[in-house]
């Protein structure tokens, strides 16, 4: 019997970032469904609500980091910079939510604590931290790929007398480091963005580096009116370009091999990309991510730039001692990262050579006994990527099967969108989707539209449930694996693509590396052929197990 204290909807969406906002709009305003979005935060924004650390900005270019499904949204918004900062993206998402009148259907401050498939009722029953319960036949997760903080388990952290903050859970009124000695752990995209900004206010910044990393200058700049006009006038062309590329950015990969041109020409191409900034260097040649010899030429070029920029040779050597191929971990872009180490108030500590032993009340102590006195510690240590946010919600499917059990050996999905044993559960940017290897809004639009079309199909056909088959998931996991192995990406042992950053997590290459354009075709074919790889059942009938 329906619980009296339970709110019934046609669909529940978890999360109000890019994905949840568009999913709400699509289901409510195109299909006419009664939808509720459940959002843990007190506002929209997702990633951009939580990640308020100093220097937080997007690595996609602003004109491409936006919704393209609505001309009104495109024409009613102007980005101020080539790479938008967190506050501007948050303003943009509020603009979207207001323009489409979305907030009235979002329950803020509502963290999902449990979701159970009720087979007899054909409903997902959802419990939340507020005590309010919800139910709907469709449950769609829009929880992001990088939203469950990876907090390192360092002995003594609880006794630290100063402040400790993870970048992805940053206080909304900021942290004042003026005159403070700050230690930052982690040199991924986040640490590389934060270090130059932290160094400007802190009395002293110590960067604790476990794994040296490549980074390319972003060459961020304000956008002029001519560019803003151009982007608006050419929205259709930009959209078409983003739909045609492997990475969802509006620029294609090079067509030549790095090895088919002479050393001088190659160097000139890398130089031009370095001056252009951002992700251009990865796109110079077609085989940067597939041939180790080609990759080495790009890697050597970047290492030479690091040694050129950083004045102290010992520090330069540590920063350039990079052991993974370029772009096999998410390639950061920066504004003055390597230059920061030329400041008098910044030091680099190599914790690969001398690991952190413990946090003491006054700072960090390394295994050698070296001590660093600190007033504040910043964990720029990343996320339990792709699966973390899903697994912490306590989702159970048919036969009360916990998702954690279904994924004990690594995530298993059909197209990254559905999990066998979990009828009517859709995972936007789930593991097995290209999401994190692409310009995220492009992946999100495609996922949302596919899910919306799928639900429309079910309703049209009088079908109540859809569920990925085991065989389809097995084949898709194998295909995701093959796609990864066709690149150099699995060679980066430390990458969060592989789950290797979280102790005890199964090592499975999670995102689909076959390219967004190819993925788009595969998904469209599945829909056009009547959803092979999925089982559907009419109202009142069980999905065959
Ligand atoms: P990343 O890319 O996962 O980087 C995390 C960094 O923190 C990385 O340098 C890690 O070193 C380091 N780390 C993680 N755990 C520890 C411990 N326990 N001790 C020392 N150092 C540690 O996360 P980001 O937040 O920078 O970026 C995430 C994504 O957000 C980014 O790719 C963009 O898509 C946006 P490791 O390499 O594991 O040795």
Automatic annotation (TrEMBL):
**Keywords attached to this entry:** FAD, Flavoprotein, Monooxygenase, NADP, Oxidoreductase
Q: Where does the source fall among the domains of life? A: Bacteria
Q: Which InterPro entries match?
A: FAD-binding_Monooxygenases, FAD/NAD-bd_sf
GO-annotated molecular function: monooxygenase activity
Cofactor(s), by name = FAD
The UniProt similarity line reads: Belongs to the FAD-binding monooxygenase family.
PANTHER family hit by this protein: L-ORNITHINE N(5)-MONOOXYGENASE-RELATED
- Specify the protein name: Cyclohexanone monooxygenase
Species: Roseomonas fluvialis
